[in-house]
Amino acid sequence: MSDQQEALVASYQDAQTRTVSAGGVDFAYRELGPKSGVPVVFITHLAAVLDNWDPRVVDGIAARHRVITFDNRGVGASTGRTPDTIEAMAKDAVTFIRALGLTKVDLLGFSMGGMVAQVIAAAEPRLVRKLILAGTGPAGGEGIKNVTRISHLDTVRALLTLQDPKQFLFFTRTPNGRRAGKQFLGRLKERTRNRDKAISLRAYGAQLKAIHRWGLAKPADLSVITAPVLVANGDHDRMVPTSNTHDLARRLPNSELVIYPDAGHGGIFQFHEEFVTKALEFLAR
């Protein structure tokens, strides 16, 4: 596919899956949107692969920015062994970003991806222009050490009711939340060809361990992150309690906060239109 054709890919469901090799890993990734400007690198959540990004969020941001999504080490179609610390995941993400020849990026980190993004922004301030942190929390944040227990419980609930665990983990149990969850899960199935490999149980276990360690860690000095940060969440996040979102906004020196009503961990997906509008305005400033 030529650069001209690639630039015309307007929808995430049509974006080609590519690989780039660095640090002994073949990283699987997709990109779309315009070729110029600072790209937005998406860093994903626990158990997620390339196909777990809401296409409305990806396409919405890719309407004005080059968007790059990727599987980190050992996840989905990427090779290697998934590390069990957030810090090691951050190093691998930087290796991937540099392998694409990028010297300046914006980061959009959701949930576990937001933890990884915080470490990258603190360790590599010259690399990161702006940050969007959604459904996430700081090291040592309230209730983060319970993610494993909540994930296991809701996976069992989902199995017993023949539903997807994300219906419970990402959305409220109100009529609005249930409807938004069904719509979100429907959108994740829009791509029918060349889908990614599901995460392995070993990689999932390593990620759970990393999040648990993050939850037990000492609070970090977030004042070192001077890049502008947009912090977003739903008002009823069960996975990473919403109090963590408020805590991040207070402790990051250059932040703004968005909280969506009657929404859970997946608030940015439930309110994808509002979120995309806000994110584009934040990135354009």
UniProtKB/TrEMBL annotation:
One MF annotation (Gene Ontology) recorded for this entry: hydrolase activity
Keyword terms of this UniProt record: Hydrolase
Family matches, as SUPFAM superfamilies: alpha/beta-Hydrolases
Domain AB hydrolase-1: 39-269
Pfam family, one: Abhydrolase_1
Protein name according to UniProt: Alpha/beta hydrolase
Organism (species): Lentzea alba
